[in-house]
Design a protein that fits this description.
The protein is of the alpha/beta class. It has 13 helices and 14 strands. The protein has 3 domains: about 100 residues, Helicase, Ruva Protein, domain 3, CATH 1.10.8; about 45 residues, no CATH class; about 160 residues, CofD-like domains (Rossmann fold, 3-Layer(aba) Sandwich), CATH 3.40.50.10680. Ligand FO1 binds next to helix 2 and helix 6. Keywords: Magnesium, Transferase.
Amino acid sequence: MRITALAGGIGGARFLRGVLAAAPDAEVTVIGNTGDDIWVHGLRVCPDLDTVMYTLGGGISAERGWGREGETFTVKDELAAYGVEPTWFGLGDKDIATHLIRTQSMQAGFSLTEITAALCERWQPGVRLLPMSDDRAETNVIVDDPSGATDDSGRALRIAIHFQEWWIKYRALVPAHGFVLVGVEQARPAPGVIQAIEQADVVLLPPSNPVVSIGTILQVPGIADALRSTSAPVVGLSPIVGGAPVRGMADACLTAIGLDTTALAVAAHYGARSARGSGNSGGIHHGASDHGLIDGWLVDTTDAGSVPAIEALGIRCRAVPLMMTDLEATRVMAVDALSLANRP
Ligand code: FO1
């Protein structure tokens, strides 16, 4: 069975461990978000690709969910001692090896796809990990200037800052007015991405951030269209449980684009792929058709009350436990997602 998943960082990577446990013989392709990628101290860092690679390869820090187990930050501290910014970015000593290889390989002309495959040779994640694009497309966040600068009529000036600065330095507490994926218009899906969606038996949208992780991947020209046209069923899992994100700050992201922080709102945002549904009013702005992207949606048992409304959108919906408390719970979630996909 060929499974393709669009994944962001921590939540997506954790869910993928459950997919591998639920379908050990499946060929799993992961299309990773690269909108979070950043140049830090001259090194190219790909947080979501590395989080998937480390999590499935057994190198992830269990406590942080990102970066390496048993990490030290000596180089980071030395850079800070020199007063070199960004001091807010947690650059781990072990992690630097990954970024050095990636940066040197990029300078030698290798694509991010080739580099990611080479890095995965060591980690053996058990999936084919593809960047969403080999071209640069970076998520910037539009915020009121944190320095408090105002224009001559006293209104707060708005600036664009890199997603990582918003996420790490400001803990997403500075209200976001929107997100801009800089360069996405010129970005092409990485080799194999469209085929992985078109040739899949099932496409999964893990409980990653629907705005800055999954939403970012969907903005790469061609990817949303491939989801709409693939013969594979597309099933997503809600990252919102009981009106709050399970982790991270998806609520700040959903609010920024005018969506409620509910499992229903995210399902409506992705929209029903079937013509049966009432389209996806207010959902992701689709190019050709106004149809949405998903056939099925899993919500947590606490949100069982929203199942009828989601079904009314034309999306098959089930309420099941969605807390990834351990590998077994995550495996059951993956089994539930795969069975919802295969339901007629
Ligand atoms: N997240 C933090 O909250 N603080 C950090 O200092 C930090 C550093 C970092 C370094 C490498 C990496 O791969 C991820 C890192 N993350 C950090 C997580 C990252 O910001 C987010 O996980 C993703 O960008 C969003 O999924």
